[in-house]
Structure formats: structure tokens, C-alpha cells
Write a structure and sequence with these properties.
The protein is mainly β. The chain has strands at about 5-10, 15-20, 25-30, 30-35, 40-45, 50, 55, 60, 65-70, 80-85, 85-90, 90-95, 100-105, 110, 115-120, 120-125. It has one domain. The strands form two sheets. The chain has an eight-stranded antiparallel sheet, with no helix packed on it. Strands 7-6-5-4-3-16-9-10 form an eight-stranded antiparallel sheet, with no helix packed on it. Strand 13 (about 100-105) and strand 14 (about 110) form a beta hairpin.
């Protein structure tokens, strides 16, 4: 059986909204989906994750995950991780609590700190 992950969206006051399970999660710019062209799970807008009409400040994966970034032509970065923790706060992606990438709103993509390149898609998959 394939490994799955859930995403927990949370607020500072403790409210949570858990989505999943998913085999992978794709961030197409700042829109989160389970698959290419799939239904929107969440969108990052005005410094918050919008989920089911509600705003949350943080998104966190439920299990150790690897991350890969993908260009429009399908060319992919190396696979990063596994990270024990993958989370997102205000357009910044963290792997094990260190900045991994950030959403570049001016061109609607992700800038990867490790390789210094821009990618329109960030893919998260359970490790293992």
C-alpha cells in the first residue's frame, strides 16, 4: 500500500483543519492540489492559507517527506530530503525548520535556496 500524507492547516489560537490523505501534494505557485489539474486543497493569499473559506497561518505535512521542484517542461530538480518536517508559513517552505524555498509572487513560482533556481511546481511526497 502506498504511503500517504495529510496536511494540517493551523492558526496561532490552535484551530486546525486536516486535509488528506494524499499520495503527493503539488504546489502550483501558491495553489495546493493533490494532482495535476486536481481540485484545489488550499491557496496562499494575503499571508494565509485559504481552506474551505477559512484562513490559516501554517500548513504542515504529517510525516517525513521528500520534496522535488519541477519546471514547466517537466525537468525536475534533485529530490531533497527526506525531511522529518515540511511546513509552510507566509509563502516560505521549511524543511526540518530551515528555509528551503519561497513563493516568488512576482512570477508565480518557487525559488529553491539550495540550487538558486525558480520552478513553477513544488511536489511533496511521503518518504520511504
Amino acid at each position: 500500500m502506498p504511503r500517504t500524507l495529510t496536511i494540517t492547516f493551523s492558526r496561532p489560537e490552535g484551530d486546525e483543519n486536516v486535509k488528506g490523505p494524499f499520495q503527493r501534494v503539488r504546489l502550483e505557485g501558491e495553489v495546493m492540489r493533490a494532482e495535476l489539474g486536481g481540485q484545489r486543497i488550499a491557496a496562499h493569499e494575503n499571508h494565509s492559507w485559504r481552506v474551505d473559506g477559512e484562513a490559516y497561518t501554517r500548513a504542515e505535512c504529517s510525516c517525513p517527506c521528500s520534496v522535488q521542484l519541477v519546471r514547466a517542461d517537466g525537468t525536475a530538480s534533485k529530490r531533497y530530503g527526506p525531511f522529518e518536517s515540511v511546513s509552510f508559513v507566509d509563502g516560505i517552505a521549511y524543511g526540518d525548520r530551515k528555509v528551503f524555498a519561497f513563493a516568488d509572487r512576482s512570477i508565480s513560482d518557487w525559488y529553491c535556496h539550495d540550487d538558486g533556481k525558480h520552478y513553477p511546481v513544488l511536489v511533496i511526497e511521503p518518504a520511504g
